[in-house]
Amino acid sequence: MTRMFKIALPDGSVREMPEGSTPADVAAAIGPGLAKAALAARIDGEMRDLNRPFEGDAALSLVTSRDEKDALELIRHDFAHLLAEAVQNLFPGTQITFGPATEDGFYYDFAPASGRGPFTEEDLPGIEDEMRRLIARDEPLVREVWTRDQVRQYFEKSGEAFKAEWVMELPEGEQITMYRTGDWVDLCRGPHLASTGKLDPQAFKLTRVSGAYWRGDPKNPMLSRIYGTAWLNKKQLDAYLVRLEEAAKRDHRKIGQEMDLFHLQPEAQGSVFWHPKGFVIWRELEAYMRRRLDAAGNLEIKTPQLMSAKQWERSGHWGKYRENMFAVPDEVPSTDDEAPILSGDADLLALKPMNCPAHVLVFKQGITSYRDLPVRYVEMGCCHRNEPHGALHGILRVRQFTQDDGHIFVREDQLIEEVREFCELLDSVYRDLGFDSYAIKLALRPDERFGSDAMWDWSEQSLRDAVHAAGRDTPEYGWEELPGEGAFYAPKLEWHLTDAIGRTWQVGTMQTDTVLPERLDASYIGEDGEKHRPVMLHRAILGTFERFIGILIEHYAGKFPLWLAPVQAVVATIVSDADAYAGEVAAKLAAAGIRVEADLRNEKINYKVREHSLAKVPLLLVVGKREADEGTVALRRMDSEDRQQMMSLDDAVAMIAAEAVPPDLR
Ligand SMILES: [Zn+2]
Ligand SMILES: [Zn+2]
């Protein structure tokens, strides 16, 4: 007699299905519409192929394109396989390696056939055509279970040295899944769609090529990586391509150069050279943050750049984080030609990768009473982290950065109120800086962690309660919990800003930490006269100045609000007769605290207007003979084309000065 399995559906109903049947059969039994729409199945929460038979009683939910996140990941993974198959069809002798789905698509790393160079952008249209041909063939994607030796032998026989090497690192005896489309197979955990025909041939595009080392290690051979983007339909793809184009226009590296804000050069990998105009933005932002932090009861401190490696051992960083730290020998280099420059036996110092331990050391000076808490230290702390060169990106990802870092020492009973206030502060700061939309997420305990379950239960619940008390655990604030994504010592609240073109950027964080106060023996005297451990809150609002200014540049596309604009106004003359008057206008604006330049060049006014508009100067004051005689200016605003406003010089100065006031001082 055939065994029957009980398959529970999301609506609470249960279907009896014979052994050997699949989620696809259930979909077909429910209706032809669902059978067509189903892309994959969740079996007891785990995503699986639609045609993989049930192994017992199970809870089943069918994944369709309405489950956009799952659906996108599935199809991107399918596209990666198609890409690999297409490349091997077109370029025999190419070896395959890995090809994962990414945030907006997929890539695949190939070892081109010997004698052939890496793939180029010219190869991409032909590969796309071949992928479309494979989609049109509507070939089933079939899951097969092989032994490790079968896989190795197969790949060795087919000349796939990389895959053969990789498979031998999987545990012996493990059942390995291979996915087949026609004659082509790849090692893969799956799941996949039932057939290639489920993919929309108009909803993908190969975007670029780059080099990548085999398994990310520079000692290994260089592979050729092809990137693609893939979506559920053409409309989504088109919208994405427009976003990409818009993002390229807003690239902070391009705008940074056009506006003369900063530069980077190889002699200082990942460290920014701020130019006067760029550093003005930094100074304004820093001054704004100082005012907000002072008003919120924070105490600013400054701690050492270099500390003994022994101190970093005590805090645990030397053990866990050393590969990201710059170590410096505590020794004067030899100037004697004969001797080695450094002896190699000096004590080591390390540049700080974070400020936390130093803040505990400040907290530990003197005796703190329970009545003194919370103690809120902040530091515009310059840190260094040794990131691989390949990971660096403009000023968004750097090796030297300045955090708006802070550590709050609280009693357990103060935690919720403290975090609630922090939520309020961030809301106000982000709105002031031009971000009306953001999401708050709570990253929960990871599998590998320090501390007891009781500690984690308490910390997670406290953060939840605090966000609730602030009224922000709602869909409007994108409230979401992220299982497994917390740090190894603490859960973490994250603030994700949405920028002008819909991209999100994680900036603010708040973490509860009981581990570091313990390790570094920080304590306060409680009401009972005994020593107690404070809870340490690590928090940041902007993250780092470098990255946040990069985000601001891209968010505003360089068109900063007046208070942040590097040059706020330019006085431009129409005729040289107005030169003296232009100087007077500029001087009055400067005296009112406005960053102003005068453009007295002998150029047509339209030329000047265009040039300053390209340089993204918010205000242009045009003056000619008439304005000079009458003591007026013609005021033009960036982006308002031809419209200009005539006003008396004094009115203009008063109006501009009022508009340039930072948002917190209005
Ligand atoms: Zn796969
Ligand atoms: Zn910290």
Explain the overall architecture.
There is one protein chain. The chain has 666 residues and is α+β, with helices and mostly antiparallel strands. The protein contains 20 helices and 32 strands. The strands form eight sheets. An eight-stranded mixed beta sheet has the order 15-19-20-27-24-23-21-22. A five-stranded mixed beta sheet has the order 2-1-5-3-4. It is globular, with a radius of gyration of 31 Å. Residues 354, 356, 407, 538 line the site of one zinc ion (ZN).
User: Termini, distance in Å?
Assistant: 81 Å
**Apparent shape:** globular
Strand neighbour order, sheet with most strands: 15-19-20-27-24-23-21-22
Q: What ligands are attached or bound here?
A: zinc ion
